[in-house]
Amino acid sequence: MLTAQDIMEKDVISFSPETDIVPAAKTLIEKKINGAPVIDDNELLVGILCQSDLITQQKNIKIPSIFTFLDGYIPLTSFKKFENDIKKIAALKVEDAMTKNPVTVALDTNIGHIAMLMVDKNFHTLPVIHNKKLVGIIGKEDVLKTFL
Known about the structure:
Blueprint: H1 4-7, H2 21-30, E1 35-39, E2 45-50, H3 51-55, E3 66-69, E4 72-75, H4 79-89, H5 94-97, E5 99-100, E6 105-106, H6 111-120, E7 125-130, E8 133-139, H7 140-145
Parallel strand pairs: 6-7
Antiparallel strand pairs: 1-2, 2-5, 3-4, 7-8
């Protein structure tokens, strides 16, 4: 059975957390890729920036619902999610918009598991890690090519 090593793209486009958001968005569009890993100064994967992270900047914010009881306020929704949404909408740098601690796969992960992650978890891009370093990336198109 095919593994991540067999289908991954080895020439990976990546961003630094300090990259400005507009050039990063342009790169995703120009290169026709859904997402790119975010690598820190130690060459460790710290996140992934996907088109969906950038689309978040265009969404309307839902103000958290609260319930008042005996002169107190009880949140009915998460203020943490609200804070994260605000941060993504106002992002100027990749680190503010990226998804932190992305799901990754190893070189020997079989294609069935990769397909399951993409379908069940709605992932479009999966970084491939070996010895804690990024060695490749797999997009949905890479999986589809195996059927040809």
